[in-house]
Design a protein that fits this description.
two-stranded antiparallel sheet; about 270 residues
Length: about 270
């Protein structure tokens, strides 16, 4: 038997080795963040609420109502249902990029954790779920403000809440890919500018995608944020999504694929 085959390192693309060991890492992040929870919350919800007030009430007075699936919808409701998905995207991405990179590369927290019986796979899963939790915390606060403003009182918002959690998980997984590739904080500027910003304007957050040129709209059909908006917006309108299986399946497939790629790239980074 070839000796080289016996010593061949395991594949970077092997299946994730997941266990409950992710929980102590998640709890550690929670305990650290708890001291800054209020300032963090204010920072996360201030910008989306300013978007909502400025465009929802300001431009909404000019636009009036939009037609969505044949139903007239106040512009502020249209904007709110899209912007809350955008907030989940931004909150999850920020945490899985800047904060996770700080723990991984700057503070070397991950290396210290991996000196215990906790594997890299479990650390990355904990970071994924932690970023998703931060996104959920943010959108919950925004959702409460929207309820207080009377933008929507649909009972189906209870369904939108776990959907937004899944949106946070998906964008956390995507962001962790770029976290594994980054050499420094400046690298994340490209991600926000070239990946997130186009989705904000092409996914139907601010205006119906029917206004887009056919080719651009065909491309936007496959954007992660588009599928998130397609699931959440009808729930704000007290209706069920028309293509729930398609959009939900796309979210799940994107999450699984992105996490697998992020895990492989992170393994390569730590084995280099």
């Amino acid at each position: 038997m070839n000796t080289g085959e016996l010593t061949r390192p395991p594949s970077l693309w092997r299946a994730p080795d997941l266990s409950r060991n992710w929980w102590p890492v998640f709890l550690r992040n929670l305990l650290v963040w708890r001291k800054l929870a209020i300032p963090s919350l204010v920072g996360n919800i201030a910008e989306p609420l300013m978007w909502l007030v400025a465009f929802g009430y300001g431009m909404g007075a000019l636009v009036g109502k939009l037609t969505v699936h044949g139903e007239p919808v106040p512009y502020i409701l249209f904007l709110a249902s899209g912007s809350i998905c955008m907030s989940a995207m931004n909150a999850a991405s920020f945490e899985a990029l800047y904060s996770a990179f700080s723990r991984m590369h700057v503070q070397k927290t991950w290396e210290g954790i991996m000196n215990t019986p906790i594997s890299l796979d479990s650390v990355l899963l904990a970071e994924l779920l932690w970023a998703a939790f931060k996104a959920l915390f943010t959108v919950t606060a925004i959702l409460l403000v929207m309820l207080a403003l009377g933008i929507s009182h649909s009972p189906k918002l209870l369904v939108a809440w776990p959907v937004l959690l899944c949106v946070g998980v998906m964008f956390s997984a995507i962001a962790l890919i770029f976290n594994a590739l980054a050499k420094g904080y400046d690298f994340f500027t490209y991600y926000f500018t070239l990946v997130l910003t186009p989705q904000m304007f092409l996914s139907g957050v601010f205006f119906p995608r029917e206004q887009l040129p056919p080719l651009v709209r065909a491309i936007s059909d496959w954007l992660p944020l588009t599928n998130a908006v397609e699931l959440v917006r009808p729930l704000f309108m007290d209706a069920w999504p028309q293509h729930a299986l398609q959009s939900g399946g796309t979210l799940i497939a994107t999450t699984v694929l992105a996490f697998w790629v992020a895990l492989a790239l992170t393994r390569r980074r730590f084995e280099a």
